[in-house]
Amino acid sequence: MTAENKLTIIHLVDIHGAGSLIHEIGEELRIVDMVIVAGDITHFGRKKDTQKIIEAIAFYNKTIFAVAGNCDFPEVENFLSLQNINLHRTFVRKGNFTLSGLGGSLPCPGTTPFEYTEEEAWQWLSDIIPETTATANIFVSHQPPYNTLNDQLPGGQHVGSKSIREFIEKTSPVLCLTGHIHEGAGIDRIGNCKIVNPGPFRYGNYAFIEITGENSTHIELKQVTVF
């Protein structure tokens, strides 16, 4: 097994501006290959709020990739793009892996700044399908796929995206790193793709992920003490 086939990741999502918690996991951030942030970096925040969070992470690890969430204003995505770390509607090659992503979410009960329809989601995802099958794909999506543990509300209703699920079924990523549904924390699977929502980092939840081969992935859901 070569170094290019191995990858360690800290997965953060739903930070909602809780930047002070980043320092609680600083030593873990230092030792992983990259940090992936799957949206809601801010809580209806702007550029300065995003910069504060990203700089706090970069203090420990400068290899960061992210998408904006539905609670992030357009300035957040613009900042990520200027930093060359934005995965929304695009892809990045890292060794034997491809990172791709989709920010925002389907329409929410209350209007949020970054929402899209299923039709828009499928159009955007279709554009990157050819680029996500050449190497092992890690798909970063704030909105979870439909009909999984990760998109289920306490009442049992599934509110994930059918377009994202179809994308996963067609492209078979090794991982889908997601969030958005705070109650949907946990690990699920669509085919060979593991779906990971660690729960909101705002409350101290995050995931450590180690990939050691195409079909060998260790995922540990972790928590820092918030109160």
Quick structural summary:
This protein has 227 residues and is α/β, with parallel strands linked by helices.
Task: Give a structural overview.
With 227 residues, this protein is an alpha/beta fold. It contains 5 helices and 11 strands, in the order E-H-E-H-E-H-E-E-H-E-H-E-E-E-E-E. The chain has helices at residues 26-31, 47-58, 74-82, 118-128, 162-171; strands at residues 7-12, 34-38, 64-67, 91-94, 97-102, 136-141, 175-177, 186-190, 193-197, 205-213, 216-223. The strands form 2 sheets. It has a 6-stranded mixed sheet. Helix 2 crosses helix 3 (74-82) and helix 4 packs parallel to helix 5. The longest helix has 12 residues, at 47-58. The radius of gyration is 16 Å and the shape is globular.
List the helices and strands and how they pair.
Elements: E1 7-12, H1 26-31, E2 34-38, H2 47-58, E3 64-67, H3 74-82, E4 91-94, E5 97-102, H4 118-128, E6 136-141, H5 162-171, E7 175-177, E8 186-190, E9 193-197, E10 205-213, E11 216-223
Parallel strand pairs: 1-2, 2-3, 5-6, 6-7, 7-9
Antiparallel strand pairs: 1-10, 4-5, 8-9, 10-11
Helix pairs in contact: 2-3, 4-5
